Amino acid sequence: MKIYIKFIFALCFFFSNSKKEKSLPLTPTMSDAPFEIGKSVGMIDSPEIMEASGLVASRNNSHALWVHNDSGDKNRIFLISESGKLLATFTIDSAKHRDWEDITIGEENGINYLYVGDIGDNFARNEVNTIYRFPEPQISPQDSPIDSTIKEVKTIQFRYPDGKRDAECLMFDPATKDLIIISKREDNVGIYLAPYPQSFTEIITLQKVGELPFNQITAGDISPNGKEILIKNYLKVYYWKKEGQESMIELLRKPYLNLPYQREVQGEAIAWKIDGSGYFTLSENPLKQPLHLFFYQRK
Fold first, then answer.
1. What is the pLDDT of residue 4?
2. Domain of life of the organism in this record (predicted)?
C-alpha cells in the first residue's frame, strides 16, 4: 500500500486511540523507565530510504543497522551507520517486494541470517505471506558505499490459523530460533509463532499463542541476549524484561512498561543497539522532511 494511504491510517490512529489506551492494564509510570528520552544521532543521508519500515542491528558489521523500505520499493535492503550514513545497498535476488514490513536477525550454526518479512496486508487479502532468509553480508567500511546482490535466498511461506491478517512486526527468539509475528489491526492484536525449524519447501500454518491489548503494532525487536522485548505502535513503545527462565510467549503475558518515545510522523521501525545499551527508532517520511535516527540510551 502506498505511503500516503498508510499515513492516513496513522493519522486516524492518533485521533482515535486515546479512549482505547484507558482500557489497557496499569503499568509503572514513565519516570520508572530504564531508558532516557530519545535524541537524534544523525540524519538519514540517502534519498533512497524514504519509507523505512524495518530496522535491526547488524551482527557482522560494527555500529551498523539494516533497514528496508515499505511497499512500492525495489527488492533491496540498506546498511546504514548508527549516525544514518549509507554504507551499502543489497538487492535480494529473486525476492518480490509486495509489502515488506519488518526485518530481524538470528544465528544458526554459527551463521547470522537476516529475515525480511513480506507480511504487510492492509486489506487482509493475502492467503499466503513470505519471509525471505539469507546470510547477513559483511562489508569493508573503506569500500562503502557498496551496491551488490544477495543470491543465497530461501523463502518461508506461511498462513495464519484464523484468517488473513495484516502484520508489521517480525521477531527472532535467540533462545529457541522461533519466529514471532504480531498482527496489526485488531483491537487485541494476535501473537503468532513459527516454531523452529521453519520449512523452506512447504507452506506452514502459524500457531496463535496469545493476544496483546494493543492495536496498530508497527514493529518489534528482541534484544540480542534474548532477555528483553520492545514492541511499538505509532504512539508508544512497550517493554518487557525477563526475570527468570520464562519463554518469550510467557513474558508477553506479564505486565509491561511504557518506554520513552520521540513522537515521529509515521514511526514504523525499532531496533536494539547490538550491546543492549539502548534502542533506535526510525520513521517513514510521508512529508518529505529530513529524516532523523533517534537513540534512547539506557540509564
1. 47
2. Bacteria
pLDDT digits (tens, 9 = 90+) for 186-205: 999 999 999 999 999 999 99
Is the omega angle on the peptide bond into residue 135 within 30 degrees of 0, that is, cis?
no
Cα gap 220→274, rounded to integer Å: 15
| CA distances (Å), origin 141, targets 76, 150, 151, 230 | 19, 18, 21, 29
* Mean pLDDT on 81-92: 98
What range defines the domain where residue 193 resides? 3-297
To the question of pTM greater than 0.70 for the whole model, the response is yes
Distance (Å, whole) CA 294 – CA 38: 6
Residue of 20 and 97 predicted with greater confidence: 97
* Domains contained in the chain, number: 1
Decide: 230 and 237 in contact? Cβ < 8 Å.
yes
Alpha-carbon distance 237 to 217, whole Å? 10
> What pLDDT was estimated at residue 287?
80
pLDDT in tens, 13-31: 544 454 444 444 444 456 6
